[in-house]
Amino acid sequence: MSGGRRQRALIAQGVAQESGLLLDEPATGPDPGARERIAALLTEPVADGVAVVRATHDLEAARSADACLLLRDGRLVGQGHPGRLPTPAALDRIR
Predict the structure, then answer these.
(1) How many whole angstroms separate alpha carbon 47 and alpha carbon 15?
(2) Has residue 62 been placed in a domain?
(3) Which domain holds residue 4?
(4) 40: which residues sit within 8 A by CB, 6+ positions away?
(5) How far are the Cα atoms of 49, 61, 91 from residue 83, in angstroms, in the given order?
(6) Rounded to two decimals, what is the model's pTM?
(7) Quick one: DSSP state of residue 86?
(8) Of 12, 50, 88, 91, which is least packed with CB atoms within 10 Å of its CB?
(9) Residues 6+ positions from 37 with CB-CB distance below 8 Å
């Protein structure tokens, strides 16, 4: 099974279990169309009140979140609205 298919299967399993989801780089591996389907799939549990936490290095994915945390070496260095947080100055602090 390809990495992208495995990633989609794991996400589907988490959604089916109706529990909170902790996703580490869910857009890594799938092709662009699959990434869009994954993003759309993740809106459903959020609308139902399920917590979805997604770790990502993809700034576009981060900007589509409801809230954003910036981590450096496992420590919180920033938090806020994703439309305002991933600024060049904030990203310089975590490099």
Answers:
(1) 12
(2) no
(3) 1-55
(4) none
(5) 22, 11, 13
(6) 0.66
(7) S
(8) 88
(9) 8
